[in-house]
Amino acid sequence: MGEQVKIIFLRRDNIGDLICTTPAIRATREAYPDAKIGVLINTYNVDAILNNPDIDEMYVYEKTKHSPGKNKMTVWWNNFKVLRKIRKERYDVAIGCGSYSPTLARHTFLTGAKLRIGYRKKTAMNFFYNNPVLPPSDAGHEVVRTFHLLKTLKIAGQPDELILFPDHLECEKFQAFTQKMVKDHNKPILAISISARIERHKWPLEKFIDLIKKLILRADANILLLWAPGSKDNPSFPGDEESADYITRNVASDMLLAYPTQTLKSLIAALALSDVVVTLDTGSLHLSAALKKPTVALMTKKNTLSWHPWRTKSIIVTAENRVEEIPVDSVLEATNTLMKDSYHEKFKVCSYKPADEL
Are 30 and 141 within one domain? Predict the structure, then answer.
């Protein structure tokens, strides 16, 4: 493969998927310490791998749905330039991460890498991958499925922890917020993240309100409300500003702290400095797991095997088909259990470390 091995990971999908790729990237760095490791990601996910010492270069492309104000031809041209830059680097290996898709396979091919690895379908042509991999027969965790692609590189064993480094400036902002707003600094911070992208993963606002009111009656935690920024009517990034406002108005308690997270970096910082997290089946679940937060996860049974919180203390509360079926008291019981375990383990130090200290 030449004097320096060059390996690029392609991860075109969402925050959780990218976080679940970090153990594979770490294992590749350990197996090839002198390699150049690159990643192709979209603009929405950049903050999820900032400060990651295993990655030498990020190549960032835009999705047209994330750029409604731009001409599609401009977006496509910019993305073409990103691929051209990758081709000029002459990568030895390109790994298409995630389940098989024609788009992922095509992008892996367009990197120009000599060895192109990715999952295939039994019935699909394998023109784009010259080292196609048959998916494991069991529907294991996404971390394991991604790690399985490394066998071609002679990397074996089991994937380790998720990798995530909060931004220290955002941590300082959050600390300033809590210093001003928190009523009792001897109580842990319980973060409740209300947003989910997929409809069947959402939980009704009235149930969130009921849960928060019952937690406030216990008075043993500072409750932090987190949500996706922006309006629900935003065509590119539908947010939950209206939902957060509805919850805060109906709870009407100074024990509920509403913290706007306008960027992914600010969300990561808020989770990093919380003590326990309650979250739906979405990116915040995997961010919390990467930050080693005790996590209550509201999930459908079908998703628990592939997407449960990886290697962190967690309680998964499940529904058969839709998360909205989960009763409030089941979430309350799970939350109280993790709160008891974490009450004396508040950690107030941001886990960010500058790259030169790693």
Answer: yes
**For residue range 261-299, what is the model confidence (pLDDT) as tens digits?**
999 999 999 999 999 999 999 999 999 999 999 999 999
Q: What is the pLDDT of residue 209?
A: 98
Give whole-number Cα distances, 357 to 57, 287, 339, in Å: 19, 22, 32
| Number of separate helices (H) and strands (E) present in the chain | 12, 12
- Taking the CA of residue 247 as centre, how many other CA atoms within 13 Å lie in the half-sphere pointing to its CB? 30
Neighbours of 154 (CB within 10 A): 7
Task: Return the DSSP state at 52.
Answer: -
Cβ burial of 242 (10 Å; 0-12, 13-18, 19+) is middle
Tell whether the model's pLDDT for residue 2 goes beyond 70. Answer: no
C-alpha angle with apex 343: 271 to 167, nearest 5 degrees?
Answer: 20
- Asked if residue 236 has pLDDT above 90, the reply is no
Domain that includes residue 243, residue range: 168-342
Number of other residues whose CB lies within 10 A of the CB of residue 98: 21
Model pTM greater than 0.90?
A: yes
Q: Are residues 86 and 35 in the same domain?
A: yes
- What gap in Å lies between CA 269 and CA 174, rounded to an integer? 7
- CB within 8 Å of 24: residues ≥ 6 apart: 9, 95, 97, 143, 146, 147, 149, 150, 159
The owner of tokens 């192109």 is 116
284/287 Cα distance (integer angstroms): 5
Instruction: Say if residue 145 is in the same domain as residue 254.
Output: no
Mean of the pLDDT values across residues 175-198?
Answer: 95
Structure tokens that stand for 219 in this block: 């008075």
Give the number of C-alpha atoms closer than 13 A to the C-alpha of residue 143, restricted to the C-beta side: 24
